[in-house]
Design goal:
This protein has 403 residues and is an all-alpha fold. 77% of the residues lie in helices and 0% in strands. It is globular and about 60 Å long. The chain starts with a helix and ends in a 26-residue tail after the last helix.
Length: 403
């Protein structure tokens, strides 16, 4: 009996530790997103050039994510995540230091590469803990990511309102978040391969099972990336708001995503992944229409809020479906993540390019159309509704509970 209690305690502690890492990861994104207008002005780039530079974030992530499985195999998940989350938090300082387009592109590549590798490892750990618990937790973990992004964006909103230099703001945030990330990693599961297990390839194409799941994630990440990177710019340029109100729009978007993800596991358990994603797609499309037709900042902010609410649980469910689709969660998750981050690669440049040629209003018409795709292709996530498969105790440092 005491062994069962101890095992349950270990798994619960592992869940909290992984959730804390998700929170730190999200806080970096929130800290960056609210200062994009400042970074744009400091680098002296236009909308099209900014979109080109932001594309390097997803390009760096897509190039680096296939390496995550190899790093975890070599170092173990605890050491690998400690290293990668530290590189990610420290990379926050780079974009605000960039004085021109070239250096901004290089900074965004490094920013995205470290983000992508840390993302794969922490999601693979989330899937393993979910299997040990025997219930859905991925939406909640991504809810903690959104909560972290909300905290980071709130700090960024305050800094923007006060007119603070983003270089100072991001340096302070990087130091604090690095310390918190390393502290949380002390209690994440230290998963290691069996002695006879072959190391994963350094680079691998996404498995076939990941392609359709990735297509759904593609639509969601496109809408999320467009809203995160361009919502503040949209309000400032399209609706001529202040920098503080523009940053607050990004914060509001993250708030709705955080709230939806924190209750998402209960919704998915009640209605299933497919119906949840279909309803979310319709809600996101409604939000996109409000953004496109907005003549007042309040309408646009409501639209971004609905967009966040609608797409909130899609990416967690894609990762969960990928993690349960085969024997190697890291490889399947890396495959889906590579596809979805390709959407992030396309989104900033496409939004910026269309905005340069027409307007940001037309750009978000594209976002609205892709949000409709969530409702159409939601059926491929049925596999993610099956949770609770147990991980082999030979590959995990967390003990497996006994009945």
């Amino acid at each position: 009996m005491s062994e069962v209690v101890h095992a349950t305690s270990e798994i619960r502690r592992a869940r909290y530790a992984v959730a804390a890492v998700f929170t730190v990861h999200g806080a970096v994104t929130g800290s960056f997103a609210t200062r994009v207008p400042w970074i744009q002005d400091h680098a002296g780039v236009g909308a099209g050039q900014l979109g080109f530079a932001l594309a390097f974030t997803a390009f760096g992530a897509s190039c680096s994510m296939p390496l995550a499985g190899r790093i975890s195999h070599s170092l173990g998940t605890r050491t690998a995540l400690s290293l990668l989350i530290s590189l990610w938090t420290l990379s926050l300082t780079l974009p605000s230091l960039a004085p021109n387009l070239l250096t901004l592109c290089l900074a965004m590549f490094a920013y995205g590469a470290t983000s992508g590798m840390a993302d794969v490892v922490m999601n693979a750990l989330g899937v393993e803990v979910e299997r040990l618990l025997g219930k859905s937790i991925m939406s909640g973990l991504h809810g903690m990511w959104s909560a972290g992004a909300l905290i980071g964006s709130a700090g960024g909103t305050l800094a923007a309102h006060l007119g603070a230099d983003a270089r100072v703001h991001h340096a302070l945030a990087a130091v604090v978040l690095t310390a918190l990330g390393l502290l949380a990693c002390r209690w994440v599961p230290d998963l290691r391969p069996r002695e006879d297990e072959e190391p994963p390839p350094r680079f691998a194409l996404p498995p076939r099972s990941a392609l359709l799941i990735g297509a759904v994630g593609f639509c969601a990440v496109f809408a999320e990336g467009a809203s995160l990177d361009w919502s503040a710019v949209y309000l400032r340029d399209q609706l001529e708001t202040s920098a503080g109100l523009a940053a607050a729009c990004t914060t509001g978007f993250m708030l709705t995503m955080a709230a939806a993800r924190l209750v998402g596991d209960a919704v998915v358990n009640r209605f299933g992944a497919v119906r949840t994603v279909r309803a979310g797609g319709l809600l996101a499309a409604l939000g996109g229409l409000l953004i496109v037709l907005a003549g007042h900042p309040a309408v646009a902010m409501t639209g971004f809020g609905l967009m966040g609410l609608g797409i909130a649980v899609v990416v967690p469910l894609c990762f969960a479906a990928a993690g349960h689709s085969g024997p190697n969660p890291s490889q399947a998750i890396a495959g889906v993540a590579t596809i979805t981050y390709t959407s992030g690669l396309i989104a900033p440049s496409l939004i910026g390019g269309v905005a340069q040629a027409t307007s940001l209003m037309v750009s978000f018409g594209v976002v609205t159309a892709l949000a409709c795709g969530l409702a159409v292709f939601a059926g491929v996530l049925r596999g993610g509704e099956r949770t609770g498969a147990k991980v082999s105790p030979r590959s995990a440092a967390v003990p497996e509970p006994r009945p």
